[in-house]
Amino acid sequence: MPIAKISAKGQVTIPAEIRKFLGVTPGTHLRFVIRGDTVQIEKGSGGIAALKGSVPVAGEQDFMAVRQHVMGEVASEIAGEGKDN
57 φ, ψ to 5°? Predict the structure, then answer.
């Protein structure tokens, strides 16, 4: 079983055996998934989808509703920029 040491900066060199198994090369994004008392390392896509689950929420979230709400807030801010207050 490969073992790695954490540097003073919190960095870890992933052992060659693991890099080869995952098929990762420099620049590849990795996702760290907490499951119970373990952490899994998975090859990530690097896109926004890779962020799914990275922020804990207090229950189910309706992504489209949140997106529409934020878009409305941003549109209101932009519309209000040119007004005299």
Answer: -125, 160
Q: CA 25, CA 74: separation in Å to the nearest integer?
A: 38
pTM above 0.85, yes or no: no
Report the length, in residues, of the chain.
85
The strand pair at 38-43 and 30-35 is best described as antiparallel
Strand, coil or helix: 17: helix
DSSP result, 38-84: EEEEEE---SGGGGTTSS--SS---HHHHHHHHHHHHHHHHHHTTS-
Q: Are 42 and 30 in contact (CB under 8 A)?
A: yes
Write the pLDDT tens digit of every residue in 11-56: 999 999 999 998 999 988 888 889 999 999 888 776 666 666 777 7
